[in-house]
Amino acid sequence: MKARNRILLAAIKNLIAKGDIDKATLILNRLHSVDAAEVIEHLSDEEKQKIFTVWSPESSAEALLEMDEHEQVDIAQHLNPPLIADILEEMPADDATDLIGDLDPQIAENILSLMEKREAAQIRQLLAYGKSTAGGLMTPEFVSLKKTKTAQQAIEKLRQVAAETETIYTLFIVNDENQLVGALSLKDLIIAPAGALLKEIMDPDVIYMEAANDQEEAARLMSKYDLLVLPVVDEEQHLLGIITIDDVVDVIEDEATEDMYRLSGASEFESDVAETSLAAATRSRLPWIILTLMGEVLIVGAIAARFSFLIKAVPALAIYWAAMTSVGGNTSFQTATVAVRGLATGQVDPHSIRRRISREFLLGVSISLITAVILFILARILSSQLAPIAIIVAVANVAIVVSAALIGALVPIIFHRLGIDPAVSSNPLLALVMDGLSLLIYFSIAFGVLRAFGTI
C-alpha cells in the first residue's frame, strides 16, 4: 500500500470510529477508484459495511470494480441485499454478472429479484451462457447501427446513446434482422460525408466470436488481431454483445494465474497466502505432497530395491543418483512449461506440433551432449579408479534428458487433445514420473555397462 493511502486509511478508520461516516466517504470520493478500493480492502467487515451503507451506489460500484473477485464476494455477502442490488445496477452488466455468478445461488436470486427488471434480465441472460464462455464475458451495452442509415443519422444516434454504452470507438453494423454485416470506426464515421450510407463506408470483413465459444479463444483472437472490442454473435449471426479489451486483460491474467498454480500443484484461491486460511492452504497443497511422497517411496524405492545389487557392487553409483533424477525432472518441467504456454497463447496448433516435438528433441540432444561431457569429466575426477562410472553417467544423462524433453512436450499436447487442462500435466505428478523413469534408465545403463566391463 502506498504511504499516502496508509495515512488515509488511518484517518478513515478514525472517522468511522467517531461515527463521522460522511467525512470518511468524502475522502474516498476524492481518491481514484483504484486507491479507494485499496483503502477499503484494509477495513474490517464492520467498517466496510458502514462505508457502503452511506456511500453512493455509483461510487461503491466504481470501487468494487477495482477489487479482486474474492474481495467483491466477501463484501457483497456482508451487505444487505437491497444495498448490493443498488450497487450492481450501477456496474456494467458483464461485471455485475461475474459478481452475481460467484455468490451463493439463493443470495444471488434474492439480489436479482430486488434489481430493476431490465438490469436483472441482462444479468440472467449473461449467466445462462456460462462464466467461461464468450457470451458470459460480453456486455450487452453497445451501439449497433442499421446499414441503411446515413453517417449523419448514425452520429445523431450516438449522441443519444453514447452515455449508456461501454465504448463507441468501434461501431457494428447490422441488417434488418440484427445480423452482423460490418464494422466501422468512429473516426471513419466522423470524416464520412453526411449523406453516405453506412453500408457504403463500413468494413464487411468483421472478426467476431460466437457466444458459446470459450473466453480464452476470444482473448487469443483479440490479441492476435490487436482488437479493442470484439463482437459476439449467435449461430445465426445475430449480434448479441461485445467483449472489450479490459475484460480480455482480466481473462488473460486469470488464466495465466490459474496455469501457474496448477503447474505447482497449488490452488488459485491462494493468490494472497497471507489472506488464505491455514486450513484451506493446507488442504490445497497437502494432496500433491502426499502423492509425491508416497510415489517416491513406492516407485523410486521399488526401482532402487530392484537394482540394489548394483549399489552393493559399485557404491559410487549412489553419488550420481540424485543428479540423474534432478536433471530428468528439471528438463521435463522446463519443456512442459513452454508447451503449456504455447497451447495457452495459441502458438502450438495442430500444424506446428510435429515441428515443436522435433525442435524439443534436437534441443534435448544438444543440452544432453553438453551436460554429458561435464558429467563425464566430473565422474573421471571423482571416481578415477572406476572408468565405467564416467561412461554410465554420461550415457544415462543423454538418454534421460532426451526422454524428459520428449515427455515434457508430448504430455501437455496429449492432455490438450483429450480436453484436459494441459497445465495439470506439468504439476508435481510429472516430476514423480520422471524421477522413476530417470532412475530406471540410469540403473539399466549402469547394469549394461558394468556387465560389459566385467565388473558384475
Tell me briefly what this model is.
By secondary structure, this protein is mainly alpha-helical. 67% of the residues lie in helices and 6% in strands. Helix 1 runs antiparallel to helix 2, helix 19 crosses helix 22 and helix 21 runs antiparallel to helix 22.
Mean pLDDT comes to 86
Shape: elongated
| Structural domain tally | 3
What is the string of helix and strand elements? Answer: HHHHHHHHHHHEHEEHHEHEEHHHHHHH
CATH superfamily of the largest domain, by name, is SLC41 divalent cation transporters, integral membrane domain
Largest beta sheet, briefly?
Answer: 3 strands, mixed
With strands numbered from the N-terminus, the spatial order across the biggest sheet is 1-2-3
Which fold name corresponds to the CATH topology of the largest domain?
Answer: Tetracycline Repressor, domain 2
**Count the helices. How many?**
22
Tell me roughly what share of residues is in helical segments.
55-70%
Low-confidence stretches: none
User: In angstroms, what is the radius of gyration?
Assistant: 30 Å
CATH class category label of the largest domain: Mainly Alpha
Number of strands: 6
